[in-house]
Amino acid sequence: MTTKEYLAQVARAEALKCWHGAVMGLKSNIQPIIEPWAGNKWTLKEADGLWCAAFVYHCCRTAGYDFPIRPRECASCNLAGCGAWEEWAKEDNRIGWRGPACQPQPGDIVLFDRVFANKVHDHIGIVLENRPNSLITAEGNLGNVSGVVERPKDGHIRGYISLPDGFVY
Description:
Layout: H1 3-15, H2 31-34, H3 44-47, H4 52-62, H5 82-91, E1 96-98, E2 109-112, E3 123-130, E4 134-139, E5 147-152, E6 157-162
Antiparallel strand pairs: 1-6, 2-3, 2-6, 3-4, 4-5
């Protein structure tokens, strides 16, 4: 099994663990997901409702990928921000960046525009399955809860990141 295939398996399992921020009167359980950013003073309260990229990072690390929370190619922010993932992919020639018209593979990372807010880079997930007109993705911060969701292949897809198997920064 490739690292990328394993990432898709890990992402599905992690999404189904029901990670959540402060919802329905429950105390947040996302501390393990945001832990890598604790040294940058990112608190549970600050992360609440903003942890989709941290979830993707958590899944990548759990699947065996090895890269820092802020690769040197990230100019604007660290990988807790969706836009940093695109910056990194476009600047590091070891990583694949593909536009929205490509056919993604399980384990690819998908960046979205205008899913929750009228902004670019406002959401990110991991492709589990590529269907003719939709994607099945594992996502964190889907209404402040992790989950597996079907998303249409439409204008909300910004592009895909393809990490090479066994990638180590």
